[in-house]
Amino acid sequence: MIFDSKNKDSVLKITSYLIISVGIFLRLAQYFSNKSLWRDEAMLALNIMEKSFIDLLKPLDYSQYAPPGFLIIEKLIISILGQSEFSFRLFPLICGIASLFLFYKLIKKCLSPLAVPVALVLFSVLLCLNYYSSEAKQYSSDLLFTLLFILVAIDLKEKSTIFYFIIYALAGALVIWFSHVSVFVLPGVGLSIFVLSLIKKERIKSILILAACFLWIVSFLVFYFFSVSHIVKIPGLIDYWSNYYIPFPLHSTADFLKYKNIIKEFFRFTSLNSIAGICFLTGLVYFFQKKKGVFFILAMPAFITLIASVFHKYPIFERFVLFLIPATICFIAEGAEWIRAKTWNRFPLAGIIIIILLLYKPVNFTRINFTHPLTQEETKPVFKYIKEHLKNGDVIYVSDPLQFSFKYYAKNYNFCSDYSIKQDREKVEEAKCSEFNHRLFLGAAENLSTRELEKIPKNKRVWFIFSEKLSDNRADKAVTLNYLDKVGVKTGSFLRQGIVAYLYDLDMRSNH
Fold this sequence. Notes:
The chain is of the alpha/beta class. It contains 20 helices and six strands. The chain folds into two domains: 5-371, no CATH class; 379-505, Rossmann fold (3-Layer(aba) Sandwich), CATH 3.40.50. The protein has helices spanning 5-32, 39-50, 68-81, 85-110, 115-125, 127-132, 139-156, 162-175, 182-199, 203-228, 237-240, 253-270, 274-290, 292-310, 325-343, 348-371, 379-389, 403-409, 450-453, 471-487, and strands spanning 394-398, 429-430, 438-442, 462-467, 489-496, 499-505.
């Protein structure tokens, strides 16, 4: 051995903190890139801006849903620091950075020493974790609370003091109001500890867990009444996510392909590869054989989430399963280390190559993202361009998906924002802009017709702003541009990530 045990521990500790430092740096870099609020963020931000603290406990507008605790924290922050993108993303950033330290504490408890740096590299550099640490949504805090309760559950495996259980029960009852996914995490870890205590014949621990679960159920019922019951009533919500529910039982090839696509999407989202899949399965087997207690604590939240998906209650889609990534990484890292250890004597390079291949894609994706930070709809440069070139009497047409971002940024660019947002706007409508030097028209939600487009004035200068992100908007954009090219002449355009603006002269042809 090159190092004795003490030196090896010191090297691993120093290495771990260096990796954590990289993770913090990457999260800060994404945060300070100050990307534009995109549609989903803007919809939630408008709710937080427009509603009182009390109203945030009620159903949100624009088909949005977020835990009341998260909304209250966001409202407090913007009340103190203002309504900038930095303010809205501050709490997710804090949660993202805190998650690095909680994850490190978790993997020290449940992984082999040499698996720790592998797991930590993945957690620090995964693009999805960096990105959602700077998105004004609740997914980063979901991750933090999941890590917190998995950690507490692992401690409860060994501890059984009444005081510790009381704190656990009260914290769980509170967290339900801060994280929707706690309804999967708390039953998962609670059931795991309960079963383990029954196996070990620890009656007191079993009773304490049941008492904690009772308190969680009471808290959840109140929470459901205030915050969740309206979500299931949102029109079209279940159908919208139909491709991301787990099909069971399998009735056709299409059902099998849906399984395949869901798994494929998860690996694409996490920027992992097939090597990660092999390591994951290996890690599952290893944990089940060697560390059953930890296995169930890590795996049960995912199992309950999958059951919810089977019953069409929760889609297995990208950001919605961000909270399952820590457990996934634990299985992957332990599997990779097991393969390395088993092949070390005869094929020492084999395990090292597997680990390099495992880490290459996530590290490379993050390297690219560092120079070109990930963004969805980069609206600010487009709005700035229009402001700088706007003339008296100009008309601005905002397509339906962009009405949220436009309203959020309107005051920054001296645009008209005196309009109510309608998600199912059936007709092109004009906003009240008498105090501004331009007129504003808002696009219909879908099935845009030529008849509706004819409401737009045949002015010399008309700006049309479209989202490039949503497929239904691309269809409406095609209809609109086809009409515009017949009745006018395009005199300019400006394109950025996920958004494009066109300037048309609609007066030129109307005069001929």
